[in-house]
Amino acid sequence: MTTPRTPARKKVSITLPFELEARGQAAAGDNFSAYMEQALEEKLINDGMLEYNRLRALDPAEDLFEAAEADAA
User: Residue 43: what are its φ and ψ, rounded to 5°?
Assistant: First the structure.
């Protein structure tokens, strides 16, 4: 049973370079999955912040132009 505190989990397989995996295991200690989960969450937050800043830096007129081009395609 899952609750808001324990969300459903899905087992996945990833392929990493040997050195990166070894460094991750050393940093993670006993719980590599939790370490990778936290790293992925932080990366997604960072990517979202970068995208937000990119969009804020755009000239609103350029943004409208890009949207119009996308609609026309």
Answer: -65, -45
